[in-house]
Structures
1.
Amino acid sequence: MDNTLKKNMVGALSWSAVNIFGVQLLQLIIGIILARLLTPADFGIVGVLFIFISLSTVLIDSGFGQGLIRKKDADQTDFSTIFYFNLAISIVLYLILYFATPLIALFFKQPALIDYARILFIVILIFPFYFIQSTQLLKKLQYKAIAIVNIISVTISGSIAAILAFKDFGVWALVVQQLSFHAMRFITYSLYTTWRPALQFSKKTIQSLWRFTLPILGQSSLNAVFNQIYTIIIGRFYPIQQVGYFTQANKYSETVNYAAQSILSTGTFPVLSTIQDDKIKLLSVYRRLIASVALLTFPFVIFLVVAAEPIIITLITDKWLPSVIFLQLLLLANLFSPMFTININMLNAQGQSALSLKLELIKKSLIIISILICFSFGIKIMLMGFVLANFVAYAISMMSIKKSLNHYYRHQIKDLFGKIFSASIAGIGIWFLNYIDMHLIVKLMLQGIIFLGIYTATLWLCFRESREILIGLLKRIV
């Protein structure tokens, strides 16, 4: 890896980390406050509405964000064209959802959803007004500005929501939180960029990007639907409180999963695109990424699985205890998700977006099969099926990487084995503490210290390659 590429990669990942982990930390703190003040039913109502917001933002983007990043000669006409396209789509989607809210309320058997939904869906109209600015900053690798924008937006919107929740506004606190978050992103992005749309629209822009963006749109749409599929099922067939338990567990799971995936998606795709024609360099970068990410995420996930119950009780009280098992299963299901994301980004960077779409289709098919088989046995068994489906999907993605980069299976397994083995040994080593009666904070501290000690010692003594990566990471930190 040459010095320029290495500098860009390190800078991209570093500021992506500041952005994602900074935002995740703030959202975690705000989420703890809101979970203590609000009820599971409050979170459940907003949880089912988020299904439509997630899918809408994906449809508005339509994959053109990555298309503009990948297009080396993107100009004002291109950016303006995509802006007007996004705005038109957002207006159409809002109108459809506005008039469909009675049907949404009927489907989930929650009449109160109508008033909340019509206000919450306004975020769909705000999104296009900062999407292009965000894309331009990503294209220029200006992650510092993006980090500041997101941290400001989360802080202000979260503070407003906490005040409203304290004053017993219930669900409206969560609705206003989302509206103010997107409004603040629009305001702050406008301060960081001078770009404004011109009165230009070119069909050629749409046509030139469509071949690349169409598979991305399909892939992103599938992700949006399937990321919410369990919320849909639980919201339709179980009490709304169960949606609250699930969404709360999913939120904590995503603190690990979404953070890692967002850093990898935003930080690696633009850089990998610059070396898309150099297979040897791509393979070298890929192996380093996989090993480094596994070194950090595997122990974090496994520790959270083992210590889930004391963590939940300590942070948001025992009224959320039913969410513990959901959290553990979701964490396990997403154990390999960061590596799956790296595989997808590697294929997309080489222009193989159609292949990455096939992988997503396979993954979603496996999830559907698991749901059909496990649905009648309850939420827990259904999530166990989700775990198995994700594991199998990652194994299949390894086949595509072998073909694309000529990366042998034994090398792919070798890059992961030491980290997951060491983390598992450490997890087993602290499991017994869950059955000892002691202050929860003391228990968590002991579990953390013992886990870290066992994990580091096992890596150091048994796996030389991991030891070298660990030393490199420690040197960068120090």
Note: The chain is about 85% helix and 0% strand.
2.
Amino acid sequence: MAAQLKVGVFVPQGWRMDLAGVRDPVEKYETMSRCALEAESAGFDAVWVYDHFHTVPEPQLESVFECWTSMAGLARDTRTIRLGQMVTCNSYRPPSLLAKMASCIDVMSHGRLILGIGAGWYQHEYDAYGYEYRDAPERLRMLRESLQVIKAMWTQEEATFEGRYYTVRGAINEPKPVQKPHPPIWIGGSGPKRTLRVVAKHADVWNSNAPTPDQTHALVKILDEHCARVGRDPATIRRSHQIRVEKEDDALRIGQAALRAGFSELLLFPFAGGDLRTGVERAAALLPRMRALAR
């Protein structure tokens, strides 16, 4: 698995106050776009954005570019790099609409879209935007139904699904995605009882949000057990881990531990503060050393 190492990078989008130093909103977007192009030129496999509306650690009157409209913009700004969300909040859009949006962006990008999705967690955004914030088990049940709707919309001529939370009756989704059978589905989260059960059933890639790869080892075993229960080979689910690029030696150490644990995808956070271009350059400079870990 390590020999197939893929490395992605987050671009500044505003959520982590990473565009606060740019005043003009047009230039804020152009900054995000230039960073995506630099990541593409440097040889990264994918660029990633968050699906959030308000900044962290505290909500501020600062620009945060919406995830899926940003996907559409970056789909046309870039040419070869893959495009993902870490991760789409299932509660923010009906799954039938999300499937339609994703299909169109996969076509617009000539087949470069990744669908990252999770149950959602940022209650402040739910309350502010008028979404009902249900308890975690119910949000995960909704996610499980959503994935069935999305797959139906992507693969059936007229999608039909009757569920507790979502219903589609003869929904036509044209154009279908370019990628077959559909764009890869990344599911983020580390809940051992419910989230990993959804991963075992539906994910092409599992993204661990455990603080370190070492803490993920126990979760890997639990995921394998869920796969056995649903009759799935766990080797068919790729694994990704997130790494903050603040101290290069620490990032390389975490990356090496992740590879030893069987992870084949690494996601770098280079924009934790300071000059944005410096963040891009630091991540790009680290990329060859990250890839060398797999050899």
Note: The chain has one domain: 2-292.
